[in-house]
Structures are given as C-alpha cells and as structure tokens.
Amino acid sequence: MSKKVLLVDDDPNILEGVGDRLRTYGLEVRCEATAAGCYATLREEVPDLVLLDIRLPDGDGLDILSHIRVHHLALPVLMISSIRGAEQESLKRGAQGFLAKPFKGEDLKKAVFQVLEP
Amino acid sequence: MTRFTFAFFALFAVQGFCFSAFAGSYAPSHPDPVEEPWRWRAFPETRGIGVRCIAEGKDGAIWVGADTGVRRYSEGEWRVYTQKDGPGAGPIHRIRVAPDSAVYVTTQEGVWRFHRWEWTRQQEGVPASDPFQGQGAPRLQTRDGTVWIGGEGCLTALRGGTRKVYSLTHVPLFGPLLDLIEAQDGSLYLASREEGLFRLDLTEARYKTWENLHAACSSSDGPLWFLTQDSAVVRQEAAGWTRYGVGEGMMDSPAQVVEGPDGVCVCGSHRGVAATGRWRGKRWEIQRHPGLARSLCCACLAPDGSVWFGSEGAGKGEPGGLLRFNREWRHFTDEEVGGIGDVAALASTPDGRVWAGGSRGLHVFDPLRLAGARSGQASTSSGQGGRAWRPVAQIEELTGPVTALHVTPDGDLWVGTRSAGALRFDGRTWAIHNTRTGLPSNGVSCIATVDSSLSVVLDHNRGILRQDGQGWVRTMDADLSAETEGLFQDRQGAVWLNGVSREGQWKAIRYQPDRDPPETTLTLKPDRVAPSGNAAWEWIGKDPHHSTPQEELQYSHRLNGGEWSPFASQRGYLFLSIPQGTHTFEVRARDRDFNVDPTPAVHRFVVEPSLWSTSWWIWMGAFLILGMVVLVKQIIQRDRQLSEFVSVVSHDMKTPLTAILVYIDNLLDGIGGGTLTEKQARTLRRARDNGERLTRMINDLLDLSRMEAGKLRLHRTSFPLTESVREVVEGLQPVAGEKGIDLTLTEEADVYVRADRDRIEQVLTNLMGNALKFTPQGGRVQVEVRQIDRTARVGVSDTGPGIHPNQQEAIFQRFHQVKKEDMGIGLGLAISKKLVELHRGRVWVQSQVGKGSKFFFTLPVEKRGKG
C-alpha cells in the first residue's frame, strides 16, 4: 500500500509540479492550498507525511506544525518555504526537515525518502 | 600711709577766695584773609598760557582770555575753544558778560559772541585794538568798598582811607597782575600773565579765624568760652565779647573751661598752685589747691554730677593725681590712680566710669568698686581709691602717652595716643585704628564727634579725618600751618579748631559745615547693553554754591538696590558681566561735609539677551531638532520599508521560481510527458542553470537587506575552522577540475572558532568561487588556514588577472562588478565583508595586476581548555 503525503502550499503550480513528481515516486498525494483545508484533511485521515509551506493565505504553517506535534505526535512534517530564516524555528517546533525554495527535484526526493524510509 | 595723710591734709587745706570784680570787654582780632595761604588756590592748567583777562559768566563759569585763545572753567573742568568751535588760538583782548548772559570775546579779528553753547561772529573784518598795549594796572572795587589794585607780584588794598600792600610771595604769585574780578560767591580771581589764574576766598561764611584765642567750650546757656593767649577767659555771646582776666577775678593761668552741673568751671593754676574756678552768674569763685600739683589742666563732668580735674606738673612733695568735686572735694593721688603721671585728658562714659589719659597710659575709675569698698569697710583710709582706679594694661597701645579722650553720643570711648593710633572701646572690646588699618598717621592730637560722625585730628598738621563707616576720609581743608590742639562742635553746629603757629601764636578757626547736599547727574548712561553685560557709567556731582569743589566730591553707586559702594572720588565705573534683563543703576554724591545727595541719579537699563537665548532663536532650534527627528525617523522608516520591500519581493519571486524549476526538473526527469530530444534536454538544463543563478541572486539580496536592517541573526557554535575550509574546498574540487585549476589547501592544526558555521562557509564559498571564476584555465588557487596569535586567518590566492589598486576598496562595496559580464550582481564580496565584520573579523585583499589576488579574512580564535 502506497504512502500518503499531504502537500500544503498556496501556489497551485507548486501543488501540481511537486504533486506530479511525488506521485512518480509511488506516493499517494493529496493537495491543500489553505490552512483550513489542511486541518480538515487531518481530521479526515492522517497521512504518512506532511509537506507544509509556511506562508498560507489563511494561516501560518508553523502553527499547523505546532498543532500536528500536539495532536499527531508521530506524524512527520517536512517544511517547504522560501523563508530561509525559518529553518531553525521549524526544526525547533519539531519538523523533520526543511526544504528551502526553490529546490531541486533530487533534493526533494532525498528529503522525502529520508523521512519516509529512514 | 604718710602720703595718704598728706593727701587728706591737702584736701582740707584748699583755700577759697572770691572776686566779684566787673568783667572787661574784649576786642577779637582776625588775621588778614589775604595773608592766610589756605585761602588761595592756583589753577596750574592756566600756567604759561599768558592769561590776560578774566570774566565770570552768569552761570558761575569763569572765562579766561589768554595769549592762546579763550577757556571756560566750570564744575572742575576746563574747556578750551579752538579755531573750529570758537574764536581760535589768537590773543584774547577782552571778555565781557552781557545782561542776557551772552559772553562777548574780542580778538584781533573782531568780536565773538557765545550764547546757548554756540559761537557767532559779530563784527567781521573790524580789527579791535589790543587794550593790553600800554594798559595800566588793573583796578577793582569789591562789594565791601575795598579798592584792589594789581601790581607787579603784589596786590594793594584801599580800605577806609588806609592802604595795604600785600607781597604775594606766600602764594606764590610773581610778575604783573593783568586782571581782577570779584565772583558772585565773594571770592577774588586774579590773572597773572606768568603764573595763570588764582582764586582768593575772602568769604568768612565757611572759615573764620580769630587770633590769640583758644576755643574751649560751648555752654548750654548759649555762650562760647575761649582762653586767650594772655591768660584770660573770654566769653562770646550775642551781646558781644567779655574778658575775664586776673583783674576780673580770674586765676592767673586758666587752662581749661568746662561745663559743670551748675555752671561753667575753670581749672588751671593761680600763683603757681593748682586752682579751680566756678562761674557764679556774675562773678568767678576761685579755689586754690596747694600741695597737689602746679596746675590742673583738664576736666570732665561725670554722669553722677561730679566734676573731675586732672593735674600736671606735680613737683617734689606734691602727690599729683586727680581731683573730684561732688559737693565735697576728693583727691586721688598719682599713686592711688596707678601712676598716671601728667594727666592730659579726662572723659566719662555713660556707665559711670571715668577715664583718665596721661603720660603713662590710660587709667579707669570704677565708681562701683569705690562704693563696694565703702560698704564693706567703713571709715578706712583713702587707700580705697587705689582699688577704684586701675591702669588699663591689657592693651599694649594704652600703656603709652594718651593725648585725647572722647565719648561719642553712642557711649563709645575713643582714645587718642601719641604714637599708637586711635582706639575705640564699645564697653566690651577694644578696636585699634592705626596706620595698618588705614589711618595716615599714628599720632593723634584730638578726637571729636562732628555731625554724628567721628573726626580725628592728626599730630603735626597731618590732617583732619572723618570716619564714614567704611574708612577714613580727609575733611576740612583749612591749612592751619600750626599744631592743632583741640576740636569740638559747638551747639550751633560750627566746628572749632585750635592751633598754635610755629611762632607760638594761638588761633581759633571756626568752620561752618554746610547742610546743602550735592546733586548727582549721569553723563554716560547706556540704555541698552550688549549681551556681554559690560557697561560703563560716568557721572558728575555739583555742590550748591560750589562749597565743595567738584574734584573733592565723592561718589557711591549701587546696582539693583544692593549695597552702596564705599564713597570714592572716581567719576565712572565699568561693570562686567551683568546678567541679562532689566537693571537699575544709582549713583549719589557726597560733599566734604558728608551731605549725601538724597535723590541719587537713577538709570534703568536693559542688558540684551544673548542670541541663543532670544525666543526666536530657541524656537528655531526647537524646530530644527524636531525637523531632524522627523527626517531621521522618515529615513529609518524608509530604510525599513525598503528592506521589507526587498524581503517581500524576494520571497514572492521565489515562489514562481520554485514552480519553474520544479516544472523543468519534471520535464527533464520525464515526469508527466514523453522523452525529450537531446537538444530539448540541453535547452531545459540551461534554463534550470539560469533559474538557479536567479535563486542565488535573490538570496544575496535578501542577506544584504537583512544585514543592513540589522535583522540577520547569527547562530554561533564552536567548530574547527579547518574542517569547514576543507569541506568547502572539497565541494569545489569538481568545479576546479572542470577548469583545470589546481585547488590546494594548506592547513595548520585545528583552529577553533565560535561562529555561524553556515555563514562562514558562505564566505569561504564566495571567496573560493570568485578565485575559481577569475582564474584562467590551468591556473592555481591556493587556500591556507593559519593561526596568528589569537586570530585565525584564511587566505585564498589565485593566479587570476589581479585587481587594480584603485579598485581594491571598491570591490567590497555592494553592486560593484569587476567586469560587466560577471555572473552575479556584485553583492558577494559586500555580503562576505559584512558577515566577517559581524563576527568581529576583517577582510582585505592583496593584489597585483597580471599576477593574481590574495583575499584574506580573519576570525577571533575561541579560547579552549583543550586543543
């Protein structure tokens, strides 16, 4: 059974491009463009990995990260952001990794599989 | 014991005798005022100018016409009128004063008129004849009828048919007198061609001299009492002068007249024996005191009504000392008094004590001691007196000869000494006035109170001084040419001064102080004073009738109602650093009779505020500061906005860039499409490379903006710098290999630094990347890590084109590019420099064009316990 990845980003192009790439890795990808959507999905079904952007139109990715750390303790989260200074904060709040935008396809693959298959 | 017995004997052996003879009349004689040198005054300013004529203006000014023009003297000052503002410097023929107070001056050229401070020429081109050619001696008839005739060094007076010729050698006045006038104040002005202008004060209102007299006292019933040089007592009252000689029942040598409790007393000597006398209304009652001393020379009245007499010239077997009369006579021998010697002065203070000054110091009599002794031991010997009298020995100055004693209306005792100055006793302490405290001489001959201020006459005609509370001031300019012997103020306010001339002639001089205060006028008064607060005032005083000459007036000033300055003759004052604001300056004059101007000259003035304390300046400064604050705030805000703008823009740019790169990657990896041709794949890779370059640029911009906004946070950890350098070198080896560059690392043992490792690696990457970028194929890039003292130094040298010296500073500035075709936007070195500086290190370059460059940066080495 394939692993489920929840991809949260406000940019539909990234959702599309990154989603396509993850799917070729054999992952089941569900995309959300808002924080509200993210929370709704999490209530519905807990994925195996969350790729989370920090800047969202209706909230802050770091807050979602904190929420996940409280309610889904074991759920790995990979932050993806163009804010390079947010890396320290993300790791402090319990993210498993940080991918600075823009990133290369191979870096994404490496980061995702480092978390999913340690 | 024998001596006391003798004293008692002496007292009871007093012989009384009375004369009831009729008194004789007395004709007082005065010296000729022309022959009194002090009445003359010379004007040295007029000497040698060839004074020809004199006139007095209606305003009291004295006009002097000379060989060299005309001069005006008024209020102590001379004014010379020159060609420009007057008749010029030629000889003046005549000066006349018209009833309309205009002054007419005749010269060779014509007649000039001076009126209302202006000169006008009256007759032009009519040369006047010089009246001095062949003119006779000047003549003048004064208001008293005397006719004065000026001569060659002499003056002739014709009075009531008698003729007196004065040779004026005592003035001195030589050469011919050319003019004579009588001024309104009764003084005579004389013009001498050689010696200039002279003034002869003939008035008797102020000074009057009597010959052969010694003013003794002024009794409460009105009359003035004198002693005459031929040993008589003279009484002066409104009805006339009365003389009491031996023939009129007076003792043959009266020495002093004092007022006792019931009439005037005389003391002195009669037929070689000490004697006293009392005026009994119509006759004198004289008593001789044989066996006491040759004479009784001084006396005083004590508060208890007793009269004391002091003796002098005690011969062999005579006990000397003091004599007291209080219904009965009591004698205190010289021994009982404590060895006083000849008594020179007596005085008693309101506390009842009697003071006697003699050739052997000051002695004091305490009546309480005598009373105490009496009540304690009834009817004992007269030795009790020895306890009542004692010498004042605690003050050294009071053990020498005492010449004068005076008790002021306040009850202070003043003691004059022959050589130790004057001493004041206020009942508790003694104050000494001598040459060290401002007295011109230590020899005092008499002391008196004149118009409630103390006056002291100095020995040997050294002057009369008056105390004004702040010091001693010379007063009464009468030149006595004699030794002064006594000073007192009579009941009418006149001051009497006695003197003995060198020839032995007695003189009594009456000085009448005036009561008119002088007027004070400011002649220089600045209304507005500059902010420095330095300002000068000048003033002048004028005594009515010129009774005090202008130059003798004294002035005192004050600022803002403060303390009056001591009276001084200076006629101006410079104040320094008066604070800004409105102030009041006052000045008042005092004449030599101590009349002070009751209405001082008042001047209100303003010291202008300094520029920086004016309100408009303060407002301007406030606006300037406010403006600057607003400006700085705006700059800071704009800077922050710019940084935020750069930051936001950079982030927003990154999002589409991410999408672009993801799509390209997907295409290259065949995700979501078929396979690509080689050319398509090459094109896409080139697009991806450019996308990555754009990413680096954006990251650089973000870094710099964050550093400039001070928002860059360093995550310092401790790490071995060599390891970081090695990692970066290894990471760049593929790039070096591609270009065929030999990239080598020379390292020392581990150097630990405490820094943000990522940032330091960013710096290393930048420096090495630049070195590789600019080094041509087959070149060499050498990296070295060294520790120099407490500093780690990293050097990156290349064999590139080098940097021109004038570019070596500029390359560290942002947006600077060495070549236009560079691969960046010129932020790399600027960011590196800032990052190193944030770590308290520094970056620099050594370079030679054509040979290569060597970049260095340093970091402080971390102190570690172990290597």
UniProtKB/TrEMBL annotation, chain A:
Transmembrane segments: none annotated. InterPro entries: Bact_response_regulator, CheY-like_superfamily, Sig_transdc_resp-reg_receiver. This is Response regulatory domain-containing protein. Keywords: Phosphoprotein. SMART domains: REC (SM00448). Signal peptide: none annotated. It holds the Pfam family Response_reg. GO terms for biological process: phosphorelay signal transduction system. Residues 4-116 form the Response regulatory domain. It comes from Handelsmanbacteria sp. (strain RIFCSPLOWO2_12_FULL_64_10). The modification 4-aspartylphosphate is found at residue 53. SUPFAM superfamilies: CheY-like (SSF52172). It comes from the Bacteria.
From TrEMBL, chain B:
Gene3D superfamilies: 1.10.287.130, Histidine kinase-like ATPase, C-terminal domain, Immunoglobulins, YVTN repeat-like/Quinoprotein amine dehydrogenase. Residues 648-863 form the Histidine kinase domain. It catalyses: ATP + protein L-histidine = ADP + protein N-phospho-L-histidine. Its EC number is 2.7.13.3. GO terms for molecular function: ATP binding; phosphorelay sensor kinase activity. This is histidine kinase. The keyword Nucleotide-binding applies. InterPro entries: HATPase_C_sf, HATPase_dom, His_kinase_dom, HisK_dim/P_dom, HisK_dim/P_sf, Ig-like_fold, Sensor_HK_Regulatory, Sig_transdc_His_kin-like_C. It comes from the Bacteria. It is an enzyme of class 2 (transferase). GO terms for cellular component: plasma membrane. Coiled coil: none annotated. Pfam families: HATPase_c (PF02518), HisKA (PF00512). The chain crosses the membrane at residues 616-636. CDD domains: HATPase_EvgS-ArcB-TorS-like, HisKA. Residues 1-23 form the signal peptide. Keywords: ATP-binding, Cell membrane, Kinase, Membrane, Nucleotide-binding, Phosphoprotein, Signal, Transferase, Transmembrane, Transmembrane helix, Two-component regulatory system.
